[in-house]
């Protein structure tokens, strides 16, 4: 009887230990260049980046190497030139980004120039599904903008991150965000993403650049932090 109990307890422990190891298993995702050579290798855990990421140039030389912790860039990152010589190394530093309600004239110019289509879509959704007639017989349609002005490419000129809160533009999983950049006298949307269900929370900006822009991380309630690279 005691021998059977010991075997049963041993099997139970082995099952629980195996389940724990399986749940923490690291997934490795790889991308390849058209010539078949490895382009990137990124480690994930529970859907978030965790551990080492390495990128390579098309010629097979290593381009960059760094680590993630809980979905965020962490520790020392290193870059190399195409000939294999070391280019630069930097420790990852992240700061919080907070949206504000007060939209200044610079941000208003960006919104008015580049987001007309989004505003049009929201109004059409409102007319089709959400509108109400007040006692005076007028339509009640309201949009709210929240913005962040921040220099994302270190050129001394702020880009504008904007979220529009209105009919059809946000849901239980979050809101749609646009990143706008000024090119001489014109504005252009250089990126967009969906996330951060609570506006003003869950955004971080890294000092690590990808494609010439500092990396943005947004957090949502389903999959933790997501990395946004521009463009």
What report would you give on this structure?
This protein starts with a helix and ends with a strand. The longest helix has 22 residues, at 2-23. It contains three helices and 15 strands. The protein has helices at 2-23, 105-114, 116-130; strands at 27-32, 38-45, 48-56, 62-69, 72-80, 86-91, 94-97, 144-150, 159-165, 170-171, 174-183, 186-195, 203-210, 213-220, 224-228. The protein is an alpha+beta fold. It folds into two domains: 21-92; 95-228, no CATH class.
Layout of strands and helices, then pairs:
Elements: H1 2-23, E1 27-32, E2 38-45, E3 48-56, E4 62-69, E5 72-80, E6 86-91, E7 94-97, H2 105-114, H3 116-130, E8 144-150, E9 159-165, E10 170-171, E11 174-183, E12 186-195, E13 203-210, E14 213-220, E15 224-228
Antiparallel strand pairs: 1-2, 2-3, 3-4, 4-5, 5-6, 7-13, 8-9, 9-11, 10-11, 11-12, 13-14, 14-15
């Amino acid at each position: 009887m005691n021998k059977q109990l010991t075997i049963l307890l041993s099997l139970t422990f082995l099952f629980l230990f195996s389940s724990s190891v399986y749940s923490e298993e690291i997934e490795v995702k790889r991308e390849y260049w058209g010539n078949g050579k490895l382009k990137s290798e990124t480690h994930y855990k529970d859907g978030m980046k965790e551990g080492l990421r390495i990128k390579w140039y098309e010629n097979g030389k290593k381009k960059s190497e760094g680590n993630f912790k809980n979905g965020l860039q962490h520790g020392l990152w290193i870059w190399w030139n195409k000939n294999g010589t070391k280019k630069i190394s930097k420790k990852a530093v992240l700061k919080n980004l907070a949206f504000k309600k007060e939209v200044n004239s610079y941000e208003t110019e960006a919104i008015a120039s580049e987001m007309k289509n989004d505003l049009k879509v929201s109004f059409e959704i409102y007319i089709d599904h959400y509108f109400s007639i007040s006692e005076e017989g007028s339509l009640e349609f309201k949009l709210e903008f929240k913005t962040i002005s921040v220099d994302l490419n270190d050129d001394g000129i702020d880009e504008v991150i904007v979220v529009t809160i209105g009919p059809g533009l946000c849901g239980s999983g979050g809101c749609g965000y646009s990143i706008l950049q000024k090119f001489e006298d014109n504005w252009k949307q250089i990126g967009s993403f969906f996330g951060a269900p609570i506006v003003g929370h869950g955004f971080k900006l890294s000092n690590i650049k990808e494609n010439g822009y500092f990396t943005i991380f947004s957090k949502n309630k389903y999959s933790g932090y997501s990395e946004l690279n521009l463009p």
